[in-house]
TrEMBL record:
EC class: isomerase
Protein purpose: Provides the (R)-glutamate required for cell wall biosynthesis.
Catalysed transformations (reactions): L-glutamate = D-glutamate
Active site: 72, 184
Family matches, as InterPro entries: Asp/Glu/hydantoin_racemase, Asp/Glu_race, Asp/Glu_racemase_AS_1, Asp/Glu_racemase_AS_2, Glu_race
Pfam families: Asp_Glu_race
GO MF: glutamate racemase activity; identical protein binding
Pathway where this protein functions: Cell wall biogenesis; peptidoglycan biosynthesis
Protein name per Swiss-Prot or TrEMBL: Glutamate racemase
Domain of life according to the entry: Bacteria
Family classification: Belongs to the aspartate/glutamate racemases family.
Record keywords, A-Z: Cell shape, Cell wall biogenesis/degradation, Isomerase, Peptidoglycan synthesis
Name of the gene this protein is made from: racE
E.C. designation(s): 5.1.1.3
């Protein structure tokens, strides 16, 4: 029986989404795929991102998942529509849920989206938000140094995050924004620091966390929610051996994780 939720990211970022799904839906089983071999996605072309994402999604489908969550804004921007047209199981991304939450949160209609170079260039948030409310002004800011910083756990070095935020975000201080969307699933790791950077008076939204709520809506609607009795073990797959992935995953999810390496 197909009963796991497939969660995909280029690396560790989607673990912030997986963790939130585990918290909100404790009866569900997650099969996580981190494409560490091809990470980062943010500086790749649309075709490369589609190709890599599709391989991982096929792998997860072959493992018997009942739905797919693209827990990666970059993959969502590049590949969501393509995959939804191609496969007939529910596939959701993180952009729509984040966009909807931003529309709900902003009071002055000025929203800043932080993301990878690809996500910022794609203007995917701008499009999603404007489809619903064209009065909202969306500023896209590419933060290409954030992912490598988080992957290298630079945030554990005293003062390093504050310096990074100052270096990258200084020009956004001039914008009259009241809402910031973390348009990359790695960024929730820096959420508190980003809130502080903007003086704690701006709403900071994690697209991934919002997506976790959508998972229960989609599963509920499709009558696919898992009963406690059938709970099985979460599984983690990576496309290249990575102690680093295992260490971060174990730390973030608070139990020992040894991901299985698969050649896709
Ligand atoms: N975590 C991915 C996202 O949400 C990006 C990381 C990468 O560049 O691969 O966009």
């Amino acid at each position: 029986m197909k009963n796991a939720i497939g969660v995909f990211d280029s690396g560790v970022g989607g673990l912030t989404v997986a963790r939130e799904i585990m918290r909100q839906l404790p009866n569900e089983t997650i099969y996580y795929f981190g494409d560490v071999k091809n990470c980062p996605y943010g500086d790749k072309t649309k075709d490369e991102i589609i190709k890599n994402t599709e391989k991982a999604v096929e792998f997860l489908i072959n493992q018997g998942v009942k739905m797919i969550v693209l827990a990666c804004n970059t993959a969502t921007a590049a590949a969501l529509e393509y995959l939804q047209d191609r496969y007939n199981l529910p596939i959701i991304g993180v952009v729509q849920p984040g966009a909807r939450r931003a529309i709900q949160a902003t009071e002055n209609n000025n929203v800043l989206v932080l993301g990878t170079q690809f996500t910022a260039d794609s203007k995917v948030y701008d499009k999603e938000i404007k489809n619903i409310n064209s009065d909202i002004v969306v500023y896209d800011k590419a933060c290409p140094t954030f992912c490598p910083f988080i992957e290298a756990e630079g945030n554990l070095v005293e003062g390093a995050t504050q310096k990074l935020l100052k270096d990258v975000l200084f020009d956004t201080k001039l914008l009259d924004i009241d809402t910031v969307v973390l348009g990359c699933t790695h960024y929730p790791i820096l959420k508190k620091d980003i809130e502080e950077y903007y003086g704690n008076n701006i709403k900071v939204i994690s697209s991934g966390h919002e997506a976790a709520r959508d998972v229960s809506t989609v599963l509920g609607y499709a009558k696919l929610l898992q009963k406690k009795l059938n709970k099985t073990e979460h599984k983690f797959f990576i496309s290249k051996e990575s102690e680093h992935f295992n260490n971060i995953a174990s730390k973030w999810l608070k139990h020992t994780i040894k991901a299985e390496v698969v050649d896709i």
